[in-house]
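Entry: ORC5 lid domain-containing protein
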Amino acid sequence: MLWVLVSCLESFVGTQGVCGSTPSRYLLELILQSIKCRYLPTSDVCVRCDDTSSFVDNLCQILLTIAAERNNGPISIGLIFEQAEKLCDGESLVLPLIVGLGSIVNEKLCYTNSLDTPVLFTVLVTRLPWEKFNFGTFYFEPYVIPIESYSREQLTRLLLSLSPAGASESRFKRFVDLLLTVCFPVCRNAGELIHLMNINWRAFDEPVTKGLVAPDDEWGQWKLAQPFLKRSLATLYLRHYADASVDSVSPKNATRQDFLELPYITRFLLIAAFIASYNPVHLIKNFCLRLLNG
């Protein structure tokens, strides 16, 4: 089975897309471009679409090209839409199109007389319940699969399965328990906890390898690792830089961890705010008054 991840946040950042395109058109072209870059990087298939009809035609052509190149019998291709709640911010027909895209494309592919007809399906990943999406405009109702948050036991098994090479099993298990004790009450995101595990394990393991504390000294290991674990609470979902050539427990590296990498959208918001701060005051007043009066 083949799959392609499509970020709905990327296609609905603003009210207008790239080069004057509407957000819905940009989303459709993003879908085609994502499939092409993943499975047909050297092909010259068309990824531009002026309307929904041309999008479906180009999508069918891309799927047939992938099936012809692989030549391994019928294939299934999934489109995974991340942060699908952003589809509600688009045009009214975008969400019904995405929900029924599999049936539309598969029906059209049946008339191509191809021996190995690919099968397309779509998956919407969101934190919102389906009732927030249902506007009564769907001909096909999707299957709703609720996924609960990870429990502490499940996260423990997940993190233990990702133990670094050469790490002591008992010491790493103790580290995972301490990490979840500090971070689990405020964060249950598996990806973020894996990131916190990777950046904090060295600070927990180095005192033992350098002989600062004994391998069985749980209190000593906790005392040295506690500042790093608590600092992680202040940098959740952020990324900090550390010097790989400097020990994790050194003051120099602790200072370098103050340099944070902001989330993607936040960077542009700060840049826009900085540029807008240079506008004259009377222009800001005129703009705000037009909005209030309009």
